[in-house]
Amino acid sequence: MNPILAKGKILSNRLLLEGGLLYEMKILTPEMAAGALPGQFVQVDCGEGTSLRRPISICDCDDITLTLCYDVRGKGTLAMAKMPVGGEIDLLGPIGRGFEIPEQGRVLLVGGGIGIYPLVKPASLLGGRAKALLGFRNASLVNGVEYFTDYGAEALVCTDDGSYGVHGFVTSLLEEELKAGDATVLICGPMPMMKAAAAVCAKYGAAAQVSLEERMGCGVGACLACVCKIKVKDGDGEKHARVCVDGPVFDASEVVW
Ligand SMILES: Cc1cc2nc3c(=O)[nH]c(=O)nc-3n(C[C@H](O)[C@H](O)[C@H](O)COP(=O)(O)OP(=O)(O)OC[C@H]3O[C@@H](n4cnc5c(N)ncnc54)[C@H](O)[C@@H]3O)c2cc1C
Ligand code: FES
What CA–CA distance (Å, rounded) separates 89 from 7? Predict the structure, then answer.
């Protein structure tokens, strides 16, 4: 569906991580929710006094509601955190090319930090065919695991410092999984993590999709603020792609890292 402008009603806006700055907002917006696909995002008018909307991924959706999970980083997301339950929120979306969900076979959902949340909708569609490999810096930042297990996915957690779950990076878990058998891999997280995970997938010949993140302006393909480089298919060379509308999800093998 083409992106639409719609007002949504805020059903909840709750702090997810005690002592942290991570929030979950549920929004009643039937027109937008019904057409949303996994891996797409919405442009939020945070109402903080600028005309710049902020891109936030669709964490989950059903026929009438969208769930967004967001980290408070600056003025826009701080204004979102203060939006009252029952109030209105102005959205543009759903935007972009999302994850292609394979019809068969095992799927590994590889997420890091806030990047775990765009993988929740794929988990809801995959159920027991999905295994989530979730990486965090330390135990105090571990969150959201139940979003995956509630949908029947298995979840393995690792932390950089070993304070929770397996000690090490999510790429080590990924390598162990791909040694054990083939899988399609969906990846979202910090750039260095996605680059390393894409390299592991290439080593084992596993099909992989990555959700890229760039600073955005318009969010609808017009301003070119969000361009990244991708390889020309079936040829030499590179070309520019707009993360907002040509992505945010790309085949990992076409990304110029
Ligand atoms: C396609 C897409 C999906 C996203 N999904 C989510 C999501 O589901 N949850 C979430 O919490 N965040 C998500 N983000 C990032 C989110 O858009 C930014 O954190 C937000 O716009 C910051 O706005 P602000 O006004 O609060 O902070 P600002 O004052 O604009 O910035 C605060 C800090 O965040 C950094 N920053 C701002 N925008 C980005 C960006 N796009 N990428 C990397 N760093 C940035 C700035 O450099 C600065 O250091 C997504 C970004 C994109 C492009
Ligand atoms: S944000 Fe304007 S073209 Fe992508």
Answer: 6
Q: Which CATH number characterizes residue 120's domain?
A: 3.40.50.80
Write down the pLDDT at residue 175.
97
Instruction: Please give all residues whose beta carbon lies within 6 A of any atom in ligand 2, as ranges.
Output: 216-219, 221-226, 242, 244
What CATH number corresponds to the domain at position 17? Answer: 2.40.30.10
Ligand 1 cavity residues, CB under 6 Å:
41, 54-57, 69-71, 73-77, 114, 117, 213-216, 248
Whole-angstrom distance, CA of residue 118 vs CA of residue 116? 6
Question: Which residue in the block uniquely carries the two structure tokens 């929004």?
Answer: 27
- Can you state the angle between helices 170-180 and 191-204, rounded to 10 degrees? 20
Tokens of 45: 């008018």
> Per the domain annotation, does 57 fall within a domain?
yes
pLDDT in tens, 1-54: 889 999 999 999 999 987 779 999 999 999 999 999 999 999 999 998 888 999
* Number of the ligand 1 atom closest to the C-alpha atom of 58: 8
